[in-house]
Predict the structure of Type-4 uracil-DNA glycosylase.
Amino acid sequence: SRSAAPFLPETPEKRSDLDELRSAASGCRGCGLYENATQTVFGEGSPAGRVMFVGEQPGDQEDRKGHPFVGPAGRILDRALEEAGIERGDVYVTNAVKHFKFKRREGGKRRIHEPPSAGEIRACRPWLLAELRAVDPDVVVTLGATAGKALLGPSFRVTKERGRLLSLPDEETPDARVVATIHPSAVLRAEDRDAVYAGFLDDLKVVASALR
Ligand code: URA
């Protein structure tokens, strides 16, 4: 099966350097998603951040601009960070999958987001694990089901696990705590936006209190 592993830098020193990782990831062909996406969107933020946020995959605007969470979902995340009292300088933001996956309706122009497959999430996981080791955060926040499954396993359910301090299960991951929550784009899609946002903010307050 396909994997990003052969595209990672060769030495352990380079594998723990975010700039080396970012530059190597720009040429990743570890799954098929590079073929239609504009570019790899690697994680960004504070290399020494105590909190690492993990989304699903770049969206349309992230794909064009090359930076994570710069579109509508990013604006929800920014607002909630501010309101929860989590400082930007304490944050690194990335995605479970580093390329935008989309389809177009027949004859259509608009690029419609498609969820990554389990195989694509698995193929991309070496980048996420390398970022985790390089940043070595105290708390990892999974945004939505894809990130939750990528780090907590296939039986992960957001509704059941959200808003509590969990730990990373696996021997290959550093021993950070994890808080799972919804994806900020769920706020944008919700009928009762205010209530869904309030729940998201409550989960981020759990993160903020774990940092004190
Ligand atoms: N949604 C994500 O999961 N990640 C982004 O970077 C943007 C939108």
